[in-house]
Amino acid sequence: MIQVAIMGHGTVGSGVYAVFEMNAREISRAVGQPVEVKYVLDLRDFSSLPYADKFITDFSVIENDPEVTVVAEVMGGVGAAYEFTKRCLKAGKSVCTSNKELVATHGEELLALAKAHNVNYLFEASVGGGIPVIRPMMQCLAANRIDEICGILNGTTNYILSEMIHKGVSFEDALKQAQALGYAENDPTADIEGHDACRKICILSDLAFGDKIDPNEVSCQGISKITLKDVALADELGYVIKLIGRAKRAENGKIYAFVAPHLVAKSSPLAAVEEVFNGIMVTGNAVGEVMFYGQGAGKLATASAVVADMMDAIAHADKRRPVEWGDGSEKLLLPLDALESAWYVPGEAPEAIVDRKIDGAVITKPMTANALHEAVGEAAGAMRVL
Amino acid sequence: MIQVAIMGHGTVGSGVYAVFEMNAREISRAVGQPVEVKYVLDLRDFSSLPYADKFITDFSVIENDPEVTVVAEVMGGVGAAYEFTKRCLKAGKSVCTSNKELVATHGEELLALAKAHNVNYLFEASVGGGIPVIRPMMQCLAANRIDEICGILNGTTNYILSEMIHKGVSFEDALKQAQALGYAENDPTADIEGHDACRKICILSDLAFGDKIDPNEVSCQGISKITLKDVALADELGYVIKLIGRAKRAENGKIYAFVAPHLVAKSSPLAAVEEVFNGIMVTGNAVGEVMFYGQGAGKLATASAVVADMMDAIAHADKRRPVEWGDGSEKLLLPLDALESAWYVPGEAPEAIVDRKIDGAVITKPMTANALHEAVGEAAGAMRVL
Predict the structure, then answer these.
(1) Inter-residue contact B360 to B347 (CB < 8 Å)
(2) Interface contact flag, A136 B135, Cβ < 8 Å
(3) Residue spans in chain A of domains classed CATH 3.40.50.720
(4) How confident is the model over A249-298, as pLDDT tens digits?
(5) What are phi and psi of B227, to 5 degrees?
(6) How far apart, in whole angstroms, are the C-alpha atoms of residue B161 and residue B158?
(7) What does pTM read for this prediction?
(8) Residues of B catalogued as catalytic
(9) Looking at the domain B137-295, which fold is it?
């Protein structure tokens, strides 16, 4: 019997408990013995739950219990979650998390701490919820040089854009719908301004390129300025508008990383990623393009990825996975100005830079942002074409 | 320095060598030391290659060299490949392969042999070429009960269908194009009759359901009878025709497994899998639907998956991955007759079974194949709707 603990009983935390219950047989068979949740740490009152006796409010109970070797951190944030994760790792317990903010902000420190104490810090659920992406990228694509990562990493914004594209709902109304359906928070800023997608593309970049990419240094543009007119013009040009997190290797080994709405050709598999789903395209120099698709959020989906990491940590109790990245001192991030793209420009543009035009918009030839601004001025509403 | 061997220098084998060359730096960094290909086993004359000195024709050189701990079997077939794989495993060498026929036919025996000798037998490249699917399904979805696998598993047939759908090319002409482009063999039977897809869905079923599914017992229908008229009628109904390998858990824990052309709704992500690409959708009871997409074949793509397995075998030299399945004695396979589907029927059908109809075809209500035959007779050209 393996004993584990769950820190946090919100959406994902209660899902982690539920997955251990509903799939006890599958989990036990794969692990080789039953896995029991010994503690659930949360300050709130859950005394009416059938497993109320598992709840504790004092973190040190987990920290000091040698029977607990693997802990799920599903509290979120970079406060207590950061503190408790460090203390778990120092106490020789593996930690598995869905906390993208913590991984993007302090991942390199926590991985180093895990290494020093010969335990695992795993975070498959931090990107793409339940979609396998981190492990396949690091293991199955291990024989590749990763050249580009390009994904629809936020389900809330993809839902809003899908409503705008397919039902002609305005941004404001689609956001209200998303909130009513529980897809968006009361304060939707982190989603619609791209901060959530930014943390995820930073984590994938850290892994793929080996050095920390600081979310605070990454250009991040959301979807709040996209209009139904943009959506209609893009459609006429053969594209859909998607919020894309991108990291691209430059020829000098440096990288571009950013979040911005892009025009995506309707023939691209990313264009078929609708509603709250996520799709993450990874380009390797041998494998070409592969894409991982599924629910990027949701209680059971995300929880199942946390539980799979916990099972992996149990299996690797005596042999930690060698995942780590540098502290950012390589300064891999290039200014975005130098990245050439074709651009969508609402309105008109000088013939010299036009590749295609329709009434109301043009697609430019590939060019830098600076060249675009020289040619058409501020170019409000311009978007890169993927 | 780790030393490895490659058995077979065809398309995939030469790709394996090429990946070790082109990505030596990435591979060395991930493994922690350089990896050198010591031998390439092939009976043909490659004396003009820059690495001609690596070639050997006598398998026992590999078998008897204790320095070689990991071997790629990329010969194909179930003759010498089977024999050499067994001898490698018995000699304490891990084997990594793209040989779907061998895995589907003798996988359980080879995995048991690997277990007995505490080495790995890995075969990520046997399904989906370079697309990560086996490892993500087994590891990232480990906390799920797998309920369905449903995939476009053969690039040749998907290319032919894409040409029929988008360019109105007949089956015969599309097949000729595929042969001219090197996507199809001179004898295309294994692809177009679905045998290749059948081996792959059997391997995925073996893994997901834990007992051998014999390719010879799996119903397997190809695409050679699909007409441009079917394609046009499906289009009018809102579908595309795709060759689908499917395995579905029934309520009693048994499974349905089969290969057949299906009508796939245009809104499904599988409908967006075009040309020679593959897409494999896996449904878990916690994660919902996830899809893995990419090039399902191709020299470097497939080779990169073999090399990643070799890197994994090196990393797990002292701790084998616990992959195994039973010998088929659980008899999991259900007769297909009991599986209800909506059906596409060219022509007419009695009103009682019709769900939708257009001029020239109907979509039925969900029903078994037997019920369909009772209602419309032989129903030549009927296809299930996914």
Answers:
(1) yes
(2) yes
(3) 2-130+298-315
(4) 998 889 999 999 999 999 899 999 999 999 999 999 999 999 999 988 88
(5) -110, 165
(6) 5
(7) 0.94
(8) 200
(9) Dihydrodipicolinate Reductase; domain 2 (3.30.360)
Which residues of B fall within a CB distance of 8 Å from A277? 269
Rounded distance between C-alpha atoms, residue A341 and residue A40, angstroms: 49
The nearest CA of chain B is from the CA of A145 a distance in Å of 6
Q: Which residues of A touch B287 (CB under 8 A)?
A: 130-131, 294-295, 300-301, 304-305
The answer to whether A2 and A33 are in contact (CB under 8 A) is: yes
Cα–Cα dist A129/B368, whole Å: 36
Among A135, A289, A304, beta carbon nearest to B287 = A304
Candidates B39, B73, B44; CA nearest to B303 is B73
How many residue pairs bridge chain A and chain B with CB atoms within 8 Å of each other?
192
Q: Does B36 touch chain A (CB under 8 A)?
A: no
Sign of CA dihedral B173, B177, B183, B184: positive
> What's the gap in Å between the CA of A34 and the closest CA on chain B?
13
pLDDT at B23 over 90: yes
CB-based contact B293 A295, cutoff 8 Å: no
Confidence of residue A184 (pLDDT cuts 50, 70, 90): confident
Give the C-alpha separation, A93 to A223, whole Å: 40
| A97 in Cβ contact with A85 (< 8 Å) | yes
pLDDT in tens, B202-217: 999 999 999 999 999 9
Q: In this structure, what is the dihedral angle of CA atoms B295, B296, B302, B308, given to the nearest 10 degrees?
A: 80
**Set of chain A residues whose Cβ sits within 8 Å of the Cβ of B280:** none
Residue A318 clears pLDDT 80, i.e. is over it: no
Closest in B136, B269, B294 to A135, CB measured: B136
Nearest to B307 among A143, A274, A311 (CB): A143
CA distance B118 to B116: 6
**Do residues A263 and A90 lie in contact, with contact meaning Cβ atoms separated by under 8 Å?**
no
Whose tokens are 């796939």? That residue is B264
CATH 3.30.360.10 in chain B: give the residue spans.
137-295
- Judged by a CB distance cut-off of 8 A, whether residue A96 touches chain B is no
Cα A292 to Cα B279: distance, rounded to the nearest angstrom: 10
A190 vs B299: CA distance, rounded Å? 42
Residue B106 confidence (pLDDT) above 80: yes
Range 165-224 of A in CB contact (< 8 A) with B: none
> The CATH number of A2-130+298-315 is which of 3.40.50.720, 2.60.120.10, 3.30.530.20, 3.40.630.10?
3.40.50.720
ipTM tops the 0.95 cut: no
Residues of B in contact with A32 (CB under 8 A): 322
Measured distance CA(B283)–CA(B137) in Å, rounded: 10
